[in-house]
Specification:
Layout: H1 3-17, H2 23-33, H3 41-69, H4 74-106, H5 122-142, H6 152-165, H7 173-183, H8 188-215, H9 221-254, H10 258-275
Helix pairs in contact: 1-2, 1-3, 1-9, 3-8, 3-9, 4-6, 5-7, 5-10, 6-7, 7-8, 8-9
Length: 276
């Protein structure tokens, strides 16, 4: 992995992460085209660090709106924190259960199986992209501009859908969670804020998981430095690219162009299926 590779992947991640087109699918396909192994510990760690850069972009971009809604009072903070916590807990429980089911159903004889091995499966990525595109398109078509309040039930449903995105690269997390919120009648602005709040909570957990995986991959100290430093550079670049992409997402979501992302996912799934 060279600095040129890091630059390419960081720019792709930064722009694609904050759009509901599955940044992971774009980055993984770019890695494959560059001759890199998407399931290798250094690549999955780089991907997580790129997510970290866009996470900071999300925090900076949404800070004002979160301050006005989530942090406007102690009661508001407690209420929204409750919904975020419930959704995250549902994601964690169902995510672990789903990974266990996948392992014991399809990889029962592979004692060393890790869910990251699925990340390099182009056919699986293409199917997930297509499914995400259909979900986004349907949510846009059925969206009636309602403004239902967030409830524990709605937060749990969004958290459950988010869990489905964890093992399947291509099934856009933001696309799936925002679309689910629209299906449930939550306003575009509120579900966008909630979706990215969930991302901010989830990302540190994924980073710790990948650090743990990296430490147990028999990477030498010198090799560790060679992984971490380029990944930090990638994090900075993805932060810059992410900030540039956020206004695009908000504008298209709020002005009724959400379905275009769905069409793109379906089209890109054909490309991934063919090239992969």
């Amino acid at each position: 992995m060279t600095l040129f590779h890091v630059f390419i992947l960081a720019v792709i991640q930064g722009f694609a992460e904050l759009l509901p087109v599955s940044s992971s699918a774009h980055v993984i396909m770019a890695e494959k085209l560059l001759g890199l192994d998407p399931s290798a510990p250094d690549m999955t760690f780089l991907l997580v660090m790129l997510h970290t850069g866009t996470m900071f972009a999300v925090i900076l971009y949404f800070w004002k709106s979160w301050h006005n809604s989530y942090f406007s009072s102690v009661s508001n903070f407690k209420e929204h924190a409750k919904y975020i916590l419930v959704a995250t807990m549902v994601t964690g429980v169902l995510g672990l259960l789903l990974q266990t089911v996948i392992k014991h159903t399809f990889f029962a004889h592979d004692n060393g199986f890790e869910i990251e091995q699925l990340f390099s499966n182009s056919k699986l990525i293409a199917c997930a992209l297509f499914a995400a595109g259909v979900v986004i398109g349907l949510s846009s078509y059925l969206d009636r501009g309602e403004n239902q309040p967030m409830t524990l039930k709605r937060a749990s449903i969004i958290g459950a859908v988010q869990a489905l995105c964890l093992p399947f690269r291509g099934f856009s997390r933001s696309g799936a969670t925002i679309s689910t919120g629209l299906f449930l009648g939550i306003s575009r602005e509120k579900v966008e804020q909630f979706s990215f709040a969930l991302a901010v909570v989830l990302t540190p957990v994924i980073i710790l998981k990948e650090l743990f995986r990296l430490m147990h991959s028999h990477v030498s100290t010198q090799g560790l430095h060679q992984i971490i430093l380029p990944s930090l550079l990638g994090m900075v670049l993805s932060f810059i690219a992410g900030m540039l992409a956020l206004k695009w997402l908000s504008s298209w979501l709020e002005h009724g162009k959400w379905h275009i992302f769905g069409l793109y996912c379906i089209g890109f799934s054909v490309v991934v299926f063919t090239v992969g």
